[in-house]
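Workshop exercise sheet. Pairs work together: one partner reads the sequence aloud, the other fills in the structure field after running the prediction. Swap roles for the next sheet.
Pair: D.N. / O.F.
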Amino acid sequence: MMDAIDHLKAEAAAVAVDYVTDGMVVGLGTGSTADFFLRALGARVGAGLRVVGVPTSLRSEARARELGIPLTTLDSHPQIDLTVDGADEVELAGFSLVKGRGGALLREKLVATASTLEVIVVDAGKVVPALGRVLVPVEVIPFGWTGTATRLSALGAVTHLRSAAPAGDQLTNPAEHAYVTDSGNFILDCQWPTIADPPVLAAAVKALTGVVEHGLFIGLAGRVIVAAAGGVQVYDRPSP
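Structure field:
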């Protein structure tokens, strides 16, 4: 049984799936909101829609197979028509996002970069006046990860190595129980007190040795669909 938030996610996904047309290459996002889109897309494929999907994670790949959505790869289709994904935080004034709570930020960003249109679907609780309420995931090389954490701290972040161990476990060596991404890397979840200038912070984090990618998505979303109790609103990125 769906709760109120799940109903909002489903409403946003129902709007997004209408953007998919026959013959498209579709990027398939990762996470709870993206899953509602996958369900809706699977239903349309079952009714005869012809598309191929590029999954952003092993999880979304497995889910798409369950739903009967034909799959391809980014190497086979380096240009994607439309990607639909969720976000952990959305700032509408600059169309900046935080993504990656599900651990798929690297592949999500690769797919987003290859997309003609990236559509983000969220419930209203994810919309904020400024980024910084949620942790920003940073995917890092396991080798020397503590040094990378120190360099992130120098940028003002409080860092936590994401763990795959059950909550509450006391770990003497956190790296032995670290969450490992689909690409074999660690994630440092970073809290900044404020993110006054997301593009500047994004560039500074990406420039650090040891950083593979980060969860600040700048200039990639072209449309945001927000579902609230009063209905669904669609926002397009303002022209530069």
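Discussion prompt: The chain has a mean pLDDT of 94. What would you look at next?
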